[in-house]
Design brief:
Length: 339
């Protein structure tokens, strides 16, 4: 491990504590690193430090990182001699180095608009009870071109109807009504969280996961306080074949981990029998319709759902009937339940 503390500005580390600590975890994303760093250094909000982490990349990432060694914003460079085996170990390490009041995990393959920090920090400072704030995202491809996919789906939550383009929600309620159904906080780069709500154990289970570990982490830290939705697409989320998001879907590993996350929510929050049936029935529907899994793999997945979550095809049929009756006001669907 090679760690560099930027001692050339040592007074800054004892007197001027930054408001935000920006952690840039990298593994083989040399081709995106300069773009990512430019998007950080060009933020309109400038009270931050940058912590650069490399997880034993095999491309020329270290060469790119070294270019920023003497940048006054860079407080730490940490280069692993061996791969850690988990991006969440890198998150954990970066947070240990962080001195800021807020943490932004800016993934190396993503980018951001210049006012990302300004908008998220303004909302967090106005809401002391908030543990997390997140924005929307524009999806981009390998070359930075628009992907044309809207993942946020805010529906009627327009900025004109909110407090300056953002809204705060009770964290525990948000987990039950939103995050149980879907990981709306789908990319770390879209998120800033308050460090005082963090503890190292929040990442212990995530380290054992490859795809849904971030979903579980956002559930845990959201439940510590309130959560803020900022209704602007200020994050640029890159979707490409080597991204963990795409790899998890293609391998099917995301399903096994999704089951663990849903089980965690059911064990720690009062989701209710009706909501549980509709949520899991919906999940089974998606699984049944997917063409990427073999019949044998799908059968194993269904057995895992039945064993871990205690539901089966009856729940799927209930959800289908509920969907047909969704025009009735008191029926529950993901869209209706979303805060």
């Amino acid at each position: 491990m090679k760690v560099m503390h930027n001692s050339s500005t040592s007074d800054r580390y004892t007197k001027n504590i930054p408001i935000v600590s920006i952690i840039v975890p990298n593994y083989n994303y040399a081709r995106f690193l300069d773009i990512r760093m430019e998007s950080i250094l060009n933020q309109t909000f400038q009270d931050f430090e940058i912590i650069l982490l490399d997880d034993h990349s095999t491309d020329n990432s270290v060469e790119i990182i070294e270019k920023y060694r003497n940048n006054p914003k860079v407080s730490y460079i940490d280069i692993n001699k061996e791969n850690s085996g988990s991006p969440f170990r890198q998150w954990k390490k970066g947070i240990e180095y962080a001195r800021g009041k807020y943490i932004w995990i800016a993934e190396a393959d993503d980018s951001a608009l210049p006012d990302f920090l300004e908008k998220t920090i303004t909302a967090l400072e106005a809401t002391p009870s908030a543990s997390v704030a997140f924005t929307g995202s524009e999806t981009i491809d390998e070359n930075g071109d628009p992907y044309g996919r809207d993942i946020d789906k805010w529906y009627k939550k327009s900025p004109q109807k909110t407090n300056g383009g953002w809204m705060a929600f009770n964290g525990k309620e948000y987990v039950v009504h939103n995050l149980y159904w879907h990981c709306y906080v789908y990319n770390a780069s879209m998120t800033v969280f308050r460090k005082e709500y963090y503890s190292p154990d929040l990442l212990d289970d995530s380290i054992k996961m490859r795809n849904a570990g971030d979903w579980l982490f956002w559930i845990k830290i959201t439940a510590k306080g309130d959560i803020i939705e900022v209704y602007e697409k200020l994050n640029l989320f890159r979707l490409h074949r080597k991204s963990a998001t795409v790899a998890g879907i293609m391998s099917g590993n995301n399903v096994w981990e999704d089951i663990k996350v849903m089980k965690y929510v059911e064990d720690h929050f009062n989701v209710g029998k009706y909501r549980k049936a509709m949520r899991l029935g919906q999940y089974i529907k998606v699984l049944r319709r997917s063409k990427q899994y073999s019949p044998e793999t799908r059968r194993k997945m269904m057995n895992a759902i039945r064993t871990s979550l205690g539901v089966g095809m009856g729940t799927f049929r209930m959800e289908r009937i509920n969907k047909m009756l969704s025009f009735i006001p008191f029926t529950l669907t993901q869209q209706k339940d979303r805060l």
